Amino acid sequence: MSKLYGIKDWILLTAAVSVDAFQEIRLVGDLIPSLVEARYGFLPPNFKKESYFSYVSRLLKTGDINKKLDKKGTVYLELTSQGKKNLIRRFPIFFKAKWDGTFMVVVFDIPEETRRARDDLREKLKELGFGKLQESVWISPYHFEEDLKEFLQETGYLDYVFVMRATRILGKSLKEKAGDIWRLKDLNSEYEKIILEADRILKGESDVIGLKKIWDGYFKVLAKDPILPSEFLPSDWKRKDAYEMLQNLSHTLIKNTRSFKNNQ
């Protein structure tokens, strides 16, 4: 779900205290989040500090976030009600306690001479976390009708696409097919590699400098993760384990670094 890599999305997610993996944001100096800078030690891939400053300023002006001070005088960002509405629209998967049991199905029939339109549409569907059920049939357990409608209107592809809401899909169980549709086995293997590498650093078997590389890898895998409801995930799904392992590694290294400095 590459939408997670948009700077605007990142800021809104980190300002949303209700989002499990992005529960708080604190600012170092003025506008550098310690969630990124202190916890991870670097800005996520392709992020520039100047762009981050610009987007924070823009979101403050549009009323999506507010700038607050805690009791210690530390600046942090708070999601407004307007910002939450925008966030829910773009990332309903983070706010739905339970899957509603329906699917968004996209079917398209695009002529060969407009191949670019077909490629553009496929990339958009991948961005939204859709999986390919068949060559021109894509499916998602979440509903991004407004996002897709805007895309189709802007690109002029509306006449080629049918969008449906399905309550039941006959045939092989989608839970059985989910692994193939969203390539879950490959994603899980990538999460497992992150866990193993983090464990090697904790055991002193790998260079500590590799921490940045591991977080980079985690974000890249997360960007491809469709964040499916638990009903579709294998019992040994490793995303949460990978996140917790990296958190543990980061906290351990920070603690050790502080201890070393205090003993100097």
From TrEMBL:
Residue ranges annotated for the Transcriptional repressor PaaX-like central Cas2-like domain, each copy included = 97-174
Q: Which EC number applies?
A: 3.1.-.-
| Gene Ontology BP term (one) | maintenance of CRISPR repeat elements
Residues annotated to bind Mg(2+): 109
Task: Specify whether Transmembrane helix is a keyword of the entry.
Answer: no
List the Gene3D superfamilies hit by this protein, alphabetically: 3.30.70.2650
In this chain the Transcriptional repressor PaaX-like C-terminal domain maps to 213-260
Task: Quote any Pfam family the record assigns.
Answer: PaaX_M
Recorded hits in InterPro entries, A to Z, give:
CRISPR_associated_Cas2, PaaX-like_central, PaaX_C
Record key words, sorted: Antiviral defense, Endonuclease, Hydrolase, Magnesium, Metal-binding, Nuclease
What name appears for this protein in its UniProt entry?
CRISPR-associated endoribonuclease Cas2
> Which species is this record about?
Candidatus Woesebacteria bacterium RIFCSPHIGHO2_01_FULL_38_9
